[in-house]
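Hey,

Quick one before I head out. I ran the complex with zinc ion overnight. Inputs first:
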Amino acid sequence: MSYLKKIEYEIIPQDSFWVFRSCPKCGRKTHFKNTKKFRVNANGNKLDIWLIYQCEECKHTLNLAIYERQKVSSIPKEEYQSFLDNNEQLAEMYGKNMQLFRKNKADIDFDSIEYDFVKLHELLENSDCGEQMVITINNPYQLKLRPEKQIAEVLGLSRSQVKNLLEKGEIEWKILQNRLIIFRNMVY
Ligand SMILES: [Zn+2]
């Protein structure tokens, strides 16, 4: 009896994204890192809230706007308190929020991101169409990773092995939204 193996992973960045941009104080492009602190400015009943990033060389700050001119009443009380408390978990959550960086036109240094493939589940089904493996890799943080690199990493293969298997048609892949789906026909 042949089988179909289904495995699902999720790519989780280990740390906040780093911003790569020119620092006015250093006079060149440097890395800015998450200080895990917020800045909250109240103006009447309007709020501005930023996540503070800092040049790793000179500590020049880069504020990433989370809320701008937002009505106090529209921010959940609990979240607002977390901003005031510099809640580290919340700061890390925003530090991995692609949307925030896009909105602030802050370029993420994708090469520096360390991440893990976290296995969500594995399933074995009987199948009539030969031995097959289907691997789904969810990328909720939208990291820019080449499919060939992801395939090599989850299957524990070298780049050239992957290239070879792709050419022979033993591996195929497609991208669906923020998901990479890998089909592997097992040949023994
Ligand atoms: Zn600097």
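Helices lie at 77-84, 88-95, 98-103, 147-155, 159-168.

Talk tomorrow,
K.
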